[in-house]
Amino acid sequence: MEEQKEKLSAIAQAKPYKIIISKPAGGEIPYRRIVIERKESYYQAAAYTEKQVFHENIPPEKLAEYLGKTAVGQYLQVNAWDDAAEHIYLCSKKGKVTYKTKKNVQTAAKASGSHNRKKQYILEEGTPIEPLVDMGVFTPEGKVVRTMYDKFRQINRFLEMVGDAVGDDTSETLHIIDFGCGKSYLTFVLYYYFTEIQKRKVQIAGLDLKADVIKNCNAAAKKYGYENLHFEVGDINGYRTDALVDMVVTLHACDTATDYALYNAIMWNARMILSVPCCQHELNGQIQSEDLGLMTRYGIIKERFAALATDAIRANLLECCGYKTQVLEFVDFAHTPKNLLIRAVKKGGSDAARAIVPAAVRKRYLGEVERMMEEFHLDPTLYRLLKEAGRLG
Questions:
Q1: Do 279 and 255 form a contact (C-beta atoms < 8 A)?
Q2: Are 191 and 204 in contact (CB under 8 A)?
Q3: What would the pLDDT profile of 177-223 be if each residue is shown by its tens digit?
Q4: How far from chain centre, in Å, is Cα 310?
Q5: For 159-178, b where at least 16 C-beta lie within 10 A, e where not — what string?
Q6: How many other CB atoms are found less than 10 A from the CB of residue 191?
Q7: In Å, how far are 300, 303, 342 from 376, measured between CA atoms?
Q8: How far apart, in whole angstroms, are the C-alpha atoms of residue 80 and residue 15?
Q9: DSSP string for 61-86
Q10: Nearest CA-CA partner of 182 in 149, 135, 139, 128
Q11: What residues contact residue 129 under an 8 Å CB cut-off, 6+ apart?
Q12: Is residue 58 within 8 Å of 44, Cβ to Cβ?
């Protein structure tokens, strides 16, 4: 019993933001499970029966005592999550205790309950982040502006996707190019994320066509003290660099600008690509079919089908070129229909040759694209660029 209390006390000392007590040891236990969540200055326990829930507030200094009194002898499992790990306490019916921690931030974040959602966010309230203050998402005190919570969640979602793409990469410095950066709020946030949260060195270059925008962005980077972030005027289509490129980011580059950004990323063997396509007009102007005319007959269906076909083709072509590719929901569809993000990570790293993709696999992915092109009379820009460069075999 003392060992059980000791392990439960270790959980309390980790200051978790959520705890779940489950698996009653016998049939006489009144509650099926107990969920404890950290609030501003206390913990709240919700004890569930089959039909009811009972709440109790617990001072932080009493949490270890509560866990010992509640769990020991009555429950066989306790899971707790802090900012860095999951704590797992298991007790056999004979009283033998197993205790371990699993460092998995994503699992912990997903376990966070609806009453404590801010604990999921990579960018937490309370720290004034200058770019977010300037774009009106944060107040000068570092609080989220009430009307900007959707934008705040979207930014954090983007950073989660970036973090997943980077994974356990250990390179000394990450070299990143942001195509079509515009006013660059996300570029500034990306710089902050790597340098202040991940404590990594980065070199980020932002590219846009508007000279006045680039001037303002460089001034802002200087104001924030972001020494390794710079912006330059340039066209995605004609941009060239001899530098190593680890990551290419392209957010809302309009229509075929996304294709040129993806093409450049592929040609540079960029290890990571994150693209939020926008305004997929090209295929909408081409698409027609004799056998599947119902997909092109109605304007709104044609428009959405063309956009989805565009991104499906892009994803397949990235797979052909040696990337593990996912198409993910970037922001809830209720807020915008332009809610997809293409995330591609190079198989085998930046030095991997395209031969890493087995010929049969490349043939299958490419065949799917070419059959789609034939059926709907399509000539997508990315396919044409890669074909001319000899990257499709």
A1: yes
A2: yes
A3: 998 766 668 899 999 999 998 889 999 999 888 889 899 999 999 99
A4: 22
A5: bbbbbebbeeeeeeebbbbb
A6: 24
A7: 17, 13, 23
A8: 9
A9: GGHHHHHHHHHTTTEEEEEEE-SS-E
A10: 135
A11: 123, 138, 142, 189, 192
A12: yes
Task: Give backbone dihedrals phi and psi of 284, rounded to 5 degrees, phi first.
Answer: -60, -30
Taking the whole predicted model, whether its pTM rises above 0.85 is answered as no
Distance CA(253)–CA(159), nearest Å, equals 19
Q: Of all helices (H) and strands (E), which one includes residue 36?
A: strand 33-38
What DSSP string runs through 303-362?
HHHHHHHHHHHHHHHHHHTTEEEEEEE-S-TTT-S--EEEEEEETT-TT--GGGS-HHHH
| DSSP assignment of 373-392 | HHHHT---HHHHHHHHTTTT
Rounded (10°) angle between helices 257-267 and 381-388: 30
C-alpha distances out from residue 227 to 115, 168, 223, Å: 39, 25, 10
Alpha carbons 64 and 68: distance in angstroms, whole number: 6
Give which of 181, 182, 170 is closest to 204, Cα–Cα.
181
End-to-end CA gap in the chain: 66
Q: Cα(265)–Cα(248) distance, rounded to whole angstroms?
A: 6
CA distance linking residue 185 with residue 182, whole number of Å: 8
Burial of 357 (0-12, 13-18, 19+ CB in 10 A): buried
Residue with tokens 């040891």: 25
Instruction: Check: CB of residue 37 under 8 Å from CB of residue 17.
Output: yes
Round to whole Å and give the CA distance between 204 and 91: 50
Q: Residue 230: helix, strand or coil by DSSP?
A: strand
Over the stretch 98-107, which tens digit does the pLDDT of each residue have? 998 887 544 4
130-146 per-position pLDDT tens digit: 999 998 999 998 889 98
Helix or strand (DSSP H, E) at 368: helix 359-376
Q: What's the sign of the alpha-carbon dihedral 196, 198, 200, 203?
A: negative
The H-or-E segment that residue 188 falls in is helix 185-192
